[in-house]
Design brief:
The complex is a heterodimer of chains A (about 1050) and B (about 350). Helices cover about 35% and strands about 20% of the residues of chain A. Chain A starts with 8 loop residues before the first strand and ends in a 15-residue tail after the last helix. By secondary structure, chain B is α/β, with parallel strands linked by helices. Chain B folds into 2 domains: about 150 residues, Glucose Oxidase, domain 1 (3-Layer(bba) Sandwich); about 200 residues, Class I glutamine amidotransferase (GATase) domain (Rossmann fold), CATH 3.40.50. Chain B is built from 10 helices and 19 strands. Classes of the chains: A alpha/beta (about 1050), B alpha/beta (about 350).
């Protein structure tokens, strides 16, 4: 069936802020969807609260609402825009749940809106545990023995019937939030209590634990006519028990014989047929490792993280095809864009292997519980493509940015074998490295299989690497050895390190095309991966193209992690678009499967490979580019600058030397001195002794951080010598290559500026002010545009300092500068001559296409030529507030106290005519409940006690009941604020924890002089409030802002919704 | 290929003179064949034992073969039939609960000469662009005997393919509570075809390819199935003549792959060689009646020419969605239908045809 004639205007619901379990893959899916719909000439209305996305870009939709993704707001958008249809399956669980609510309430029907993508019955059958079980039973697909329960007692009864261990899975929660494995009744009571509370319908599934079975996934697509294909099979290296988002995944499935493979493929197709899915669907199976017994674990009738991976792994654009199906097309009508002459109704087959490797934030959250289970913890992932498993694995480990190029982890070499085996008994993020270490120590494959249940195929492959490394280390590095090592995927530098010898020759990688069909048909996809082989298909492709356009390579930002998120992908993609518009051939190198940048039709060519020196060298050799762009790929790309410059590559925009000048402490100090700009005093140190001395010299509190980092990784404020010693201990235990910076800490107003410079003139689209004072990482602060509380003189100073810095550093392109205003003086904290996480949001709210301009300037244009004056761009009519979003409920034992180390995973935007309304929107979008009554529990450190008084008073005035721990309570009572005294955890049985569990408390304001260590009372209290989904504020300024919003009395219903295309 | 099992050198030379240098795996020696590629990711053991691959040097595009090892259950016949085998890498530590051995040993045992560690992607593209061509795999030095070998390569022809793979005498596979009796003509039958029939309630008697109409009639079957098989269909004119008589018996007939092509020839259609064949598990076939596309496994190098089918006697029921070649025929003059796939996606039609007759 062709395009339905009754569809003219479609509302696309996005997935909102990036949280663990729902990340950039939905920007990729949503962007594909919007493009597919627009291609068909449909009018697209978009709602998504996440401003860092490409889908919220003006080019993507006709009407764009960056508004909270709540039911009421979506209803209002529908009332304003009157779309005839809603697309439900491209916005993750968030979009799907909202669509289903709209349908079930009858709202869609009463407003004559059709639900596209999935009907409520399909969603119900797939997502309601009991309905799912019944459906599977009906078609004879086996499920795991399980029961849906709504009380803890029922959970315990059922567990006794089927035997422990059991898995608890709450219904309708993201990424399995609140689930877990219980080995006994006590644990079950604990987990199911939490799960029941988190489930919006107070329902959990108790299920027989089948950990150790193989976990196999199929991505399936079905159309309205009934055509069904499987796009890709995937096998989890980690067997059942670890969330698939936390598993290393290989595509296609490799340990299944044809019989098992086809059995599961048929099952997947049967399921999708029965559910009548129209679009993409993910089917997860557990397969007994020693028989044909299997069970259906889960079915997701929408695009997902796995479908993004499957799309990138095969070249088959699932989201695009799913969107076309949603508006009426069938698979046999949709052309396979990769080959250009086959149709979407065929199953891709591949002639390489693909690895997905998760990226966790445990390097930041040093005290977080590192065990993996049914709750996803990874913030991002990388994908690698190779002609062997070993090659792909080595590429993956290089891409994941742990500072590793093999599976040898130094610290694991230092623990005893006994300890190592103990680690292996639980699944931790470093398990693959532990396994590798165990193999090196001669632990047998059989034994390791027994402990980990990882299939022996994977273990044998890892053993190949162990053996190869031994061979390299043993005797002369012959050509044969070298060639073998290259084929297996080692870098020259790694081979030299392992062998202790110079490479006898230098072999360069060649590139093969990802074409969906294993070479069977001629393809035109400009999508390549490297391997060591004879023929270079990329070279041939370029020769065939015989284009006289100049080529520019844009380096991407790698895996999503805290501090380097989707914003950088936004910038990379915009840079590519502009390059294309300007008549250049734009080439992208990146390794993140979730992103828009790695969609094969974003650039003129895509190289899906690690971003290390040697990997990049091979690409440059093949492409022979006119220039390269590093300033949009975050620290991942910036790190390559020096090497690229040494290679003689033309770096477009700010030079390598200027980048170095901004990052090198001494050179930077010289520049500041020359410019007459003050900065907080500081020193550079290498050892604990030096650090202690420097801190005494500066006077406490001081700020400590390693140089060359992003997102404030491992940054702390030290109030005493003990803090400094503890910190240096952690830093020096991991590799210390770069020195540690130690600065005087000034608790002033933080101001941030992104500027575009052409070497002479500079343009500041807007000055942003942070709600939280310096000390809270800029990525975790609520940020306001335009700044609300700066005097004209301060603003002028900031503009002037920006000018001086941009000129002195000779910035060509973007620069991000952070200032602190302290006692009416402006100090510079940091200068980053590259794009920053605020670029997308400022671009959207000011209407200045920052990346566009920066790219054009890099290519030789000037601001003047582009029609912009130097200086600050006039402020607009709207105030935009960026509110950070955290994933604390998914990361056990992480202290939620905000500090100089970034913790947020995503952000939301609130746009309104005034600051209060914009903040209100931002808070609602970020998930704040904004209850107007109940209890407020306050427990603050001594330095905050004076400042908390007016805030407590404000809450009391609004009718909240105030509770406080000893010091805080007596201080508030002394100030005539009636405060109930609460015991700290150590002070009695009735204490803060029991109070939080009682449900009386709706807000917690907690600050402490020291945090981080999970055993601390203050940390436990904050964790408890997260577990109970109680709004927890850890900065005085945030509490103040929130109190103001509450007191304003306004609700989201009072605030106008804004179509940002009209700003 | 395993790291510490560095094989000896081996070479693959194509009829166009192109030489691929790799490592030997499986048996050693020199073999000639028609070089083709298969894009299936799983099912290497089935490929090795599929009689349809007689005379071929099969290249696997998936880079790692033998991951799950070999077992005694998955053979499509009792031996291997291909001439040679090409892979990028083979797995020396396979893993699967049914695994009984490694692919390398299996090839040695069955005397199949293999070559690995070559750029199979490059080879695939050569075949795709230049068409299927003959080649030789040898573990001897190819350069010193290049001209001599090249002559032999060019002279190579697949001969008597069906004769070499069909059974010599009939044998019956019973099935509990059989509803139908099926005679399965063995042009190179696969065990999975027999299994599919017995799973569908058919008692199957496999008969040699040259069995006459008279013999079949005497067996009084409810249906006749024409199996898949190797080689050029037009080389089997004796069988085609036979089929002309068999189809007059009025017994429902169903054919797959070579069986499809032979019945078409018996009804006056023509066959031709495809540029590089259809070999893989992802061939899309459109059922023209329902409009649905089926994803099918195919393994053939020839097609029935659409234009040669007499619309009076037959109609095209299926086409290959990729290249629009004929993928199925429904006959009007006789009670028969056939599909160009190596394993039927559904036996429903055949069963329905028999059901009608039994009633």
């Amino acid at each position: 069936m062709p395009l339905r004639s009754d569809i003219k205007k479609v509302l696309v619901i996005g997935s909102g802020p990036i949280v663990i379990g729902q990340a950039a893959e939905f920007d990729y899916a949503g962007t594909q969807a919007c493009r597919a719909l627009k291609q068909e000439g449909l009018e697209v209305v978009l709602i998504n609260s996440n401003p860092a996305t490409i889908m919220t870009d003006k080019a993507m939709a006709d009407k764009i609402y960056i508004e909270p993704l709540t039911l009421d707001v979506v209803k209002r958008v529908i009332e304003i825009e009157k779309p005839d249809s809603v697309l439900s399956t491209l916005g993750g669980q968030t979009g799907l749940t909202l669509s289903m609510q709209l349908a079930e309430e009858g709202f869609l029907e009463s407003h004559n809106v059709k639900l596209l993508g999935a009907n409520p019955e399909t969603i119900h059958k797939a997502e309601d545990r009991q309905a799912f079980k019944d459906t599977m039973e009906k078609i004879g697909e086996p499920c795991i023995p399980s029961k849906v329960v709504e009380t803890i007692e029922d959970a315990v009864d059922f567990a006794q019937e089927i035997g422990y261990p059991v898995i608890v899975r709450p219904a309708f929660t993201l990424g399995g939030t609140g689930g877990g494995i219980a080995y006994n009744e006590e644990e079950l009571r604990d987990i199911s209590k939490n799960g029941l509370r988190l489930s919006p319908i107070t329902q959990v599934l108790i299920e027989k634990c089948i950990s150790g079975w193989k976990e196999i996934e199929f991505e399936v697509i079905r159309d309205s006519k009934g055509n069904v294909i499987t796009v890709c099979s995937m096998e989890n290296l980690d067997p059942v028990g670890v969330h698939t988002g936390d598993s290393i995944v290989i595509a296609p499935a490799v340990t299944l014989s044809s019989a098992e493979f086809n059995m599961l493929r048929t099952a997947a197709i049967n399921i999708v047929r029965e559910l009548k899915v129209e679009g993409g669907c993910n089917c997860q199976f557990a397969l007994h490792p020693e028989s044909f017994e299997y069970a259906v674990i889960e079915v997701n009738p929408r695009v997902s993280r796995s479908s993004a991976l499957a799309s990138k792994a095969t070249g088959y654009p699932i989201a695009k095809v799913a969107s076309k199906i949603a508006i009426g097309y069938t698979l046999d009508e949709i052309v396979n864009q990769v080959t250009g002459n086959t149709f979407a109704c065929f199953e891709p087959t591949i002639d390489y292997v693909v690895i997905k490797f998760p990226k966790w934030a445990f390097d930041k959250f040093v005290y977080a519980k590192r065990t993996l289970g049914t709750q996803m913890k990874a913030t991002g992932e990388v994908m690698s493509i190779g002609t062997s498993f070993e090659q792909a694995m080595l590429k993956a480990v290089r891409s994941i940015e742990l500072g590793l190029d093999t599976f040898n982890m130094k610290k694991l070499g230092e623990i005893s074998t006994e300890e190592l085996l103990k680690h292996l008994e639980t699944v931790e993020d470093e398990r693959i490295f532990q396994v590798y270490e165990a193999l090196k120590r001669g632990i047998s494959i059989d034994k390791l299989h027994e402990i980990t249940m990882i299939d022996k195929w994977f273990l044998s492959k890892l053993m190949n690497l162990v053996n190869l490394e031994r061979w390299l280390a043993d005797g002369e590095l012959t050509e044969e050895k070298y060639n073998t090592a290259k084929q297996y995927g080692y870098l020259d530098s790694t081979i030299e390190r392992l062998s202790g010898q110079k490479c006898p020759l230098r072999k360069r990688a060649v590139f093969k095309m990802v074409d969906t069909c294993a070479g069977e048909y001629k393809a035109e996809t400009p999508y390549f991966y490297s391997t060591f082989d004879e023929e270079n298909e990329a070279r041939q492709f370029i020769d065939r193209l015989d284009s006289d356009k100049k080529k520019v390579i844009v380096f991407g930002s790698g895996p999503i992690r805290i501090g380097q998120g989707i914003e950088f992908d936004y910038c990379s993609v915009h840079c590519v678009w502009t390059l294309k518009e300007e008549g250049y051939e734009a080439v992208i190198c990146n390794n993140n499967p979730e992103t828009v940048s790695t969609d094969f039709d974003t650039g003129d060519r895509l190289y899906f490979d690690p971003l290390t020196k040697e990997d990049v060298e091979a690409i440059i050799e093949t492409e022979q580019p006119y220039g390269v762009v590093v300033q949009f790929g975050g620290q991942t790309a910036i790190k390559l600058t020096r090497h690229l410059a040494d290679m003689g590559v033309n770096i477009l925009g700010t030079s390598a030397d200027s980048i170095d000048a901004a990052e090198d402490r001494e050179r930077f100090d010289e520049i500041l001195e020359k410019c007459g700009i003050p900065r907080p005093q500081g020193h550079t140190v290498m050892t604990t002794e030096e650090a202690v001395k420097a801190a005494e010299d500066l006077g406490y509190p001081v700020l400590l951080r390693p140089s060359y980092v992003l997102g404030g990784q491992n940054m702390i404020i030290a109030h005493s010598e003990a803090d400094v010693v503890e910190y240096m201990g952690i830093i020096t235990s991991t590799m210390i290559e770069n020195p540690v910076l130690i600065d005087k800490y000034m608790m002033g107003t933080e101001v941030e500026v992104d500027a575009i410079c052409d070497g002479k003139d500079f343009l500041i689209p807007g000055i942003m002010e942070h709600v939280e004072r310096a000390g809270v990482h800029s990525g975790d602060s609520i940020s306001i545009y335009p700044a609300q509380n700066l005097t004209p003189k301060i603003k002028e100073t900031i503009i002037e300092y920006t000018r001086r810095l941009a000129t002195e550093l000779n910035v060509v392109g973007l620069v991000n500068i952070q200032y602190v205003v302290y006692n009416n003086e402006v100090y510079v904290i940091e200068v980053n001559p590259r794009s920053s996480r605020t670029v997308p949001y400022i671009s959207k709210v000011t209407g200045i296409p920052m990346v566009d301009l920066a790219t054009k300037i890099m290519l030789g244009s000037t601001l003047k030529e582009l029609g912009y004056e130097s200086g600050l761009y006039p402020e607009g009519d709207y105030v935009a507030v960026k509110v950070p979003v955290f994933s604390f409920e998914k990361l056990q034992d992480v202290d939620t106290m905000l500090g100089p180390e970034m913790k947020s995973t995503g952000e939301c935007l609130g746009i309104a005519r005034n600051f209060e309304d914009a903040l209100l929107k931002g808070l609602v979008a970020a998930g704040y409940d904004l209850k107007k009554e109940g209890g407020v529990l306050i427990s603050v450190r001594d330095t905050d006690k004076q400042e908390i008084i007016p805030i407590a008073e404000q809450f009391a005035r609004m009718g909240f009941e105030i509770y406080g721990t000893s010091g805080t309570a007596s201080m508030l009572n002394n100030n005539n604020i009636e405060t109930k005294y609460v015991n700290k955890i150590s002070e009695g049985e009735q204490n803060v924890v029991t109070l939080l569990e009682s449900g009386k408390i709706h807000y917690v304001i907690s600050t402490s002089a020291k945090g981080r260590i999970p055993a601390r009372d203050s940390v436990k209290m904050r964790r408890k409030s997260i577990e109970r989904s109680i709004c927890s504020l850890t900065a005085i300024d945030t509490a103040q802002a929130l109190a103001n919003v509450l007191e304003s009395g306004r609700t989201i219903d009072d605030v106008e919704l804004v179509d940002i295309t009209k700003i | 290929m395993s790291l510490f099992n560095q094989g000896e050198k081996a070479y693959l030379m194509l009829a166009n003179g192109q030489i691929f240098e790799g490592k030997s795996f499986g048996a050693k020696g020199t073999v000639f064949g028609e070089v083709v590629f298969s894009t299936a990711v799983v099912g290497f053991q089935e490929t090795l034992t599929d009689p349809s691959n007689y005379g071929l040097i099969v290249t696997q595009t998936f880079p790692s073969v033998g991951n799950y090892g070999v077992n005694s259950e998955d053979n499509e016949s009792d031996s291997t039939h291909l001439s040679g085998y090409v892979a990028r890498e083979w797995c020396d530590a396979p893993s699967n609960f049914r695994m009984e051995g490694r692919i390398d040993d299996f090839l040695i045992k069955n005397n199949v000469v293999g070559i690995c560690n070559i750029d199979t992607r490059c080879l695939t593209r050569v075949i795709r662009e230049q068409g299927v061509m003959n080649g030789v795999i040898t573990t001897e030095d190819v350069y010193s005997k290049k001209e001599e070998l090249l002559e032999k390569v060019k002279a190579y022809e697949i001969k008597d393919a069906v004769k070499n793979v069909t059974c010599t005498e009939a044998h019956t596979y019973s099935c509990e509570n059989a509803k139908y009796k099926v005679v399965l003509m063995d042009f190179g039958v696969k065990k999975s075809t027999i299994r599919s029939l017995t799973d569908n309630g058919c008692e199957v008697t496999v008969v040699p390819a040259y069995t006459t109409a008279e013999t079949i009639k005497s067996m009084n079957p409810d249906g006749i199935m024409l199996s898949s098989g190797p080689g050029n269909p037009a080389d089997n004119m004796d069988i085609v003549e036979n089929l002309k008589e068999i189809q007059q018996l009025g017994i429902p007939m169903f054919g797959i792959c070579l069986g499809h092509q032979l019945l078409a020839l018996a009804n006056g259609a023509e066959t031709a060689k495809l540029k590089y064949g259809h070999r893989g598990a992802n061939q899309p076939v459109i059922d023209l009646e329902s409009g649905l596309t089926h994803v099918t496994s195919q393994n053939h190098g020839y097609e029935v020419l659409c234009d040669s089918i007499d619309p009076e006697t037959a109609a095209i029921s299926h086409v290959n969605a990729n290249d629009k070649t004929c993928a199925g025929i429904r006959y009007k003059n006789i009670n028969a239908s056939t599909v160009q796939v190596s394993a039927a996606f559904s036996y429903d039609e055949f069963l329905a045809m028999m059901n009608k007759e039994v009633k």
